[in-house]
């Protein structure tokens, strides 16, 4: 892969910002998994101060907000820096990112002020889910912009990369709804669901969990098939596909362990962390087919 930008500053800053955004997604997962979402009942301060009481739950939530503040600032700076250096699709995408950052900050505030983590209504499930879905849109848009600073991909990868990206993106959204609608243990067993091969009932909780599993099997088979095809072709291009499969297999294994251990916290956090990593990686791979390589704008 060759760089399409002469100056490396904007690309480096964007790369660092993507890492911060990933860390923030994990931190958000830790906050909700430990039930710390309302440990700071006010917003933007925490217990009316910037130095809240030293309790673990409070510091998870306050740490999430501090990291959010740093990451939000980094996103805006790196986006503006890159917008100045580029034009076309990347510039448009990053302007969208800046807008989405404003939306996600306001939504985060509304989540706290309306005590949405208590999830006692359909509206609150949608509110918390939309906060994280927008965060994911920001994450993937930045990866697409970053990928566009390198030259394009091979045509033979196009159809597969785009399909995989689409399916994984949908699977991640499904996972978020599984989590925030409280459907995580609606199938408390695995490989069966309530002892049955087919969905035992057609409630939304069971269907969400069941479809999330079906998509996982689909993604597992698709990525395994691709590794097999690359190995058979013997052209020495299997490495990135092996990496994709390993990430997906890890994710599926952690998903099963999560069910078997009835949502043991480290597995819950790992399932979020690896899930976002899989999404980031397949977004990077699909990048050249979604956003064409960008050239530097002359000053
Ligand atoms: C390619 C495979 C998979 C991907 C990409 C994926 C992705 C995700 C994501 C992103 C979340 C939301 C995490 C968060 O908000 O922090 C999630 C939640 C969940 N997934 Fe998966 N998943 C996969 C496979 C599986 C499998 C095989 C199972 C079970 C057999 C499973 C069970 C669950 C459960 C129970 C939740 C809710 C967890 C909670 O309450 O915190 N997933 N998934």
Notes on the protein architecture:
The chain is an all-alpha fold. The chain has one domain (9-290). It is 70% helix and 0% strand. The chain is built from eight helices and no strands. The radius of gyration is 20 Å and the shape is flat. The model has no long low-confidence stretch (mean pLDDT 91). Bound molecules: protoporphyrin IX containing FE. Residues 29, 132, 168, 171-172, 175-176, 178-179, 184, 190, 212-213, 216, 219, 248, 251-252, 255-256, 258-259, 263, 268, 271-272, 275, 278 line the site of protoporphyrin IX containing FE.
Map the helices and strands.
Layout: H1 9-33, H2 56-85, H3 88-113, H4 122-147, H5 158-180, H6 204-233, H7 239-260, H8 265-290
Helix pairs in contact: 1-2, 1-4, 1-8, 2-3, 3-4, 4-5, 4-8, 5-6, 5-8, 6-7, 7-8
